[in-house]
Amino acid sequence: MTQLILGIETSCDETAAAVLEDGRHVRSSVLHSQIMLHERWRGVVPEVASRSHTQRIVPIVQAALDEAKVRPSDLSGVAVTHRPGMVGCLLVGLAAAKALALRYDLPLLGVDHVQAHIHTALLTRQDMPLPALCLVASGGHTALWLLRAPLDAIRLGTTRDDAAGEAFDKGAALLGLSYPGGPSIERAAQNGNPKSLVLPRSLLGPDSLDFSFSGLKTALLYHLRGPGVTEPPPVLPPARVADLAAAYQEAIVDVLIQKLSRAAERVPVQSICIGGGVARNVRLRTRLQESRTLSALQLVLPEPSLCSDNGAMIAFLGHLQLQRGLTSPLDLEAVATPDAGGKAAPR
Ligand code: KG4
Ligand code: ZN
């Protein structure tokens, strides 16, 4: 019998739903992005986000079911992000998922959002050789994970301050580029010279697999207006913005590549994969393919729409959990913090 999992994602600023068939075929994937709502604040405003999820959740879930030509009663389970994220946002998705599970007597599958990003590579390539080293780099998280087997990932290193996506977002704000910063820095960098400015690469000592990006943002700020100066950074000519964007992007990508290479040299792995919004970055993807250490391994780069937040990755992890009988109770809670790196099982 065909297995159909509905995946619901509302942890941040995307209201997303998808239907996944038999753990491999994405029958539908529908998404409403709130970027327009948060643009003027240059970051996600929690209450604005949860109110928007409340308005969008029913039509988005309905659209995912319609597009997949599936009735709720045809579903085998409902997967939903229950951690980590903004609690007011998570609660919207959880309420929708619980209502469907209760009404149609379906298993509820509480999913960890970061684990969903990690496992997306297995949705892209089901035969990805394991163990795999996975970089998850998004607006809220940046960490290296060792995926030993499905639902068995351990964290090797994480950021001590800003996430890589956050560094892109803050750098873009300093350069007067639009929010979210990743895509706008990437666009501006296309016409720039990455060698125009040498920015710091924080590697935190020879053995560390942790990340730190807050110094990079400060270095750019000081370059623009000098330490101790309180006026806003000056408006720069487009060619200068392009050069600085290219140098800034290169500094972030360099650190991500160096940490991946360091981990790959230390831990025996068969594959390398990436996930999270920053994994959409073309320079990062190109550098991965060019790296001698990394390209010697099986490289799995999920398509960009599967890297940033989406419902299909939630449905896929839900599918893996259902296969193992890891269903969640109907009083499943929303949890703000990420799993610190144990197994990808629901709490
Ligand atoms: O995974 P995601 O969609 O949401 C979170 O879970 O945070 O990631 C969003 C982050 C933002 O910080 C955004 O600037 C960054 O991913 N991002 C990018 C690109 N597209 C999105 N960063 C670099 N290059 C991109 N093309
Ligand atoms: Zn994410």
Could you describe the 3D structure shown?
This protein is of the alpha/beta class and 347 residues long. It has two domains: 4-117 and 308-323, ATPase, nucleotide binding domain (Nucleotidyltransferase, domain 5); 127-305, 2-Layer Sandwich (Nucleotidyltransferase, domain 5). Helices cover 43% and strands 18% of the residues. The chain is built from twelve helices and ten strands. It has helices at 35-38, 46-68, 87-104, 113-124, 164-174, 181-189, 214-225, 238-266, 282-290, 292-295, 304-307, 311-323; strands spanning 4-9, 14-21, 25-33, 77-83, 108-112, 132-137, 142-149, 152-158, 271-275, 298-300. Strands 3-2-1-4-5 form a five-stranded mixed β-sheet, sandwiched between helices. A five-stranded mixed β-sheet has the order 8-7-6-9-10, with helices on both faces. Helix 5 runs antiparallel to helix 8 (238-266). The protein is globular and about 60 Å long. Mean pLDDT is 94; it is low at 343-347. Residues 113, 117, 138, 276, 309 line the site of zinc ion.
